[in-house]
From TrEMBL:
InterPro entries: PduO/GlcC-like, PduO/GlcC-like_sf, YBR137W-like. It comes from Agreia pratensis. This is Uncharacterized protein, UPF0303 family. Pfam families: HbpS-like (PF03928). It comes from the Bacteria. SUPFAM superfamilies: GlcG-like.
Length: 170
């Protein structure tokens, strides 16, 4: 799998379009169920995609404090694990993808990192963290990728979740 590095939005209109796309992805990627065996399957999908693309990434799926799946591919660094923890914490706290958390303020020309209440040491408003949601239940886990540009991290997670959903529907 190859990823074309997505260009970062630059205008309020582009940020608004990105936010709308992410919101659609959240609505689309609702699962029927999700437990530890599913975390393994999703994690292995992401490992395969990362390996095929020679991506220097770390992959993590967690339910609260419990890590259900974690892998570091060739080229991943210890810093990726720090970013994963911050992105996952953001998704857990705010209930939305970490890329959406950072994108929404940019529609108004602001950065969440400039807000005094946003703790950058604990949270990251950068792409790669995504809620794993079950229909009728809500968020039950967080899947996170770190190691690529933030939109590519996000897109890889979404591609993996889409593949997971497609496999489930067969």
């Amino acid at each position: 799998m190859t990823l074309m590095s997505a260009r970062e939005p630059a205008t309020p209109e582009e940020f608004a379009a990105l936010a709308a796309r992410i919101e659609d992805e959240v609505a689309e990627l609702q699962l029927d169920a999700f437990g530890p065996p599913d975390a393994l399957r999703l994690g292995l999908i992401l490992v395969r995609r990362g390996t095929e693309g020679s991506f220097p990434i770390a992959i993590d799926i967690r339910r609260g404090e419990q890590i259900l799946f974690h892998a570091a591919l060739e080229g991943a660094q210890a810093d990726n694990d720090v970013w994963i923890a911050r992105k996952a914490r953001s998704v857990e706290r705010y209930g939305i993808p970490s890329l959406l958390l950072g994108t929404r303020p940019k529609i108004a020309g602001k950065r969440i990192e400039n807000e005094g209440w946003f703790d950058q040491m604990s949270y990251a408003a950068h792409g790669g963290g995504f809620p794993v949601s079950v229909k009728g239940v809500g968020m039950v886990a967080v899947v996170t990728v770190s190691g690529l540009p933030q939109i590519d991290d996000h897109n890889l997670v979404v591609a993996g979740l889409r593949e997971f959903v497609e496999e489930e529907s067969r």
